[in-house]
Amino acid sequence: MLKPLSTATRELVNLDGLWDFAVGTAAGEHPWTGPLDTRLEAAVPASYNDLFTDSAIRDHVGWVWYQRLVRVPRGWSDERVMLRLDAATHEGRVYVDDTLVAEHVGGYTPFEANITEHVAAGQEFRLTIGVNNELTNLTIPPGTITITEDGRRQQKYHHDFYNYAGLARSVWLHSVPRVHIEDITVVPGLDSTTGTVEYEIGTSAPAAVRVRVLDAAGTEVAAGEGASGTLSIEDVTPWRPGAAYLYDLVAEIVDGEAVRDTYHQAFGVRTVEVRGTKFLINGEPFYFTGFGKHEDTPVRGKGHDDAYLVHDFQLMEWLGANSFRTTHYPYAEEVLDFADRHGIVAIDETAAVGLNLAVQGGLTGRPHPPTYSDDTLNDDTRAAHAQAIRELIGRDKNHPSVVMWCVANEPSTHEDGARDYFEPLVELTRKLDPTRPVCSTASLLTTHENDRIADLFDVVCLNRYYGWYIANGDLVTAEALMDSELRAWVEKLGKPILMTEYGADTLPGLHSVWDQPWTEEYQVAHLAAHHRAFDRCDAVVGEHVWNFADFQTSPGIHRVDGNRKGVFTRDRRPKAAAHALRARWISLSGHKPSNDA
């Protein structure tokens, strides 16, 4: 699905701002049939949970309703009028006046509706959007809903971040010509100094198509005819980590000399490959330094904010970080656009987090329901998961910053049924995009001895918390455990190993002269112990600390105002670990130290 753009043949209107807002039954039985009877207003984009002081709104389980009036621009009388939501977490229904025009399940990918037949140029219409935050065993991510004795509905889930909901990303009204470009796929290649560009253009109806490639200065460097083909760029400038260079593929529908539609697709020329125990970008070994992050800020929740976007990337640059993983869901498209322009590498992840009922037993091994069964994660769950993969790749396939797809975070891959569940999903991912490696991250409960699916992936991705959940406060043992496990995975699979999570909760301002957990000194020592282990293992191709910044989680006695593993506080103030990482990562500059360093 193409992101709405303003071009010579297209226009768009941003619908962000304050919308009328109502929760559940307070909105009436059919809230789309008239003006919402409410005094509340909610900001878009933003999660609604932290906007209001009423805990009943924050803890609400079910549908909420947004509404506003929208005027179609007068000049759109001969155009198709489209309505697009960048996301509705986790299910959305869209009404134009009294008519349902779109439904979508999946909280982090866009959907749209052609509303041409329901509106008129120059006229207003009533736009009502329902958003449902319910998670079940058939959703991605999964969850369960329980009813208390007094009749309250409560949402339970196994992922360790708060279930923020609502319209956290932008809403758009945009126009396209009657016959228009619907999709563009760009597959770059690199052969010495020559770049290749395989392209495929999808159109709403059969049409004549031509394409041009412009360099960063706007000079045409390649051109072709037809809806698919391969172009060559001589003396190409590759897209490189830390040195982004973007070309512009201009796709046009033409009728003789007349241009009926035009769309600009930015892309970079680069290759990605796994060879032995190396991860290669443009044929050169790459060492990941960076974080798992979250779209999480005070008041906004998961609401996208360009100011935080810029500041977060500035902090990563200050640290010397070169990459991040979109933990644990597809981020706003603006994030990947920014990464494309600034040469930051991304691992793009689906919202498949919490597929692990074994965590109910914790690390003690207590009995728990099977993760994969007719009553838990089943064929319908896998179908929802497959759709999440399709939508992720469909949205993000042209981003040069994206170098690997992550199909899930910490699923229970040591249980019966894991391979039957995941093997078709990995096959689907490779079919949709054969050009990028595929991975999934392994939880502490999954080891080299009991794992059943790691051979399906290109990179072994480990989330490990030695020195925190295991051997808490004992960094000597933690380092030895890390050493031992790294060696075991290399011996078993001989693949690259990426440390996708490691870290320790830390309270800013808490200090000690001893190795005391929760102190800033312990976080620094904890990371250093892991880094020594990484540097001794040639197969380790990167380190993503958990987490970039503290973030909100569901309430519970095991969390003090959220997860505190960030090297920055939630309002982006550095802990001591941030300075320690900066010293290490600036010296690495994308290349791993030798074992004798």
TrEMBL record:
<protein>
    <recommendedName>
        <fullName>Beta-glucuronidase</fullName>
        <ecNumber>3.2.1.31</ecNumber>
    </recommendedName>
</protein>
<dbReference type="GO" id="GO:0004566">
    <property type="term" value="F:beta-glucuronidase activity"/>
</dbReference>
<feature type="domain" description="Glycosyl hydrolases family 2 sugar binding">
    <location>
        <begin position="14"/>
        <end position="177"/>
    </location>
</feature>
<dbReference type="InterPro" id="IPR006103">
    <property type="entry name" value="Glyco_hydro_2_cat"/>
</dbReference>
<feature type="domain" description="Glycoside hydrolase family 2 catalytic">
    <location>
        <begin position="272"/>
        <end position="586"/>
    </location>
</feature>
<dbReference type="InterPro" id="IPR006101">
    <property type="entry name" value="Glyco_hydro_2"/>
</dbReference>
<dbReference type="Pfam" id="PF02836">
    <property type="entry name" value="Glyco_hydro_2_C"/>
</dbReference>
<dbReference type="InterPro" id="IPR017853">
    <property type="entry name" value="GH"/>
</dbReference>
<dbReference type="InterPro" id="IPR013783">
    <property type="entry name" value="Ig-like_fold"/>
</dbReference>
<dbReference type="Pfam" id="PF00703">
    <property type="entry name" value="Glyco_hydro_2"/>
</dbReference>
<feature type="domain" description="Glycoside hydrolase family 2 immunoglobulin-like beta-sandwich">
    <location>
        <begin position="179"/>
        <end position="270"/>
    </location>
</feature>
<keyword id="KW-0378">Hydrolase</keyword>
<dbReference type="InterPro" id="IPR008979">
    <property type="entry name" value="Galactose-bd-like_sf"/>
</dbReference>
<dbReference type="InterPro" id="IPR036156">
    <property type="entry name" value="Beta-gal/glucu_dom_sf"/>
</dbReference>
<keyword id="KW-0326">Glycosidase</keyword>
<dbReference type="Pfam" id="PF02837">
    <property type="entry name" value="Glyco_hydro_2_N"/>
</dbReference>
<dbReference type="InterPro" id="IPR006102">
    <property type="entry name" value="Ig-like_GH2"/>
</dbReference>
<comment type="similarity">
    <text>Belongs to the glycosyl hydrolase 2 family.</text>
</comment>
<dbReference type="InterPro" id="IPR006104">
    <property type="entry name" value="Glyco_hydro_2_N"/>
</dbReference>
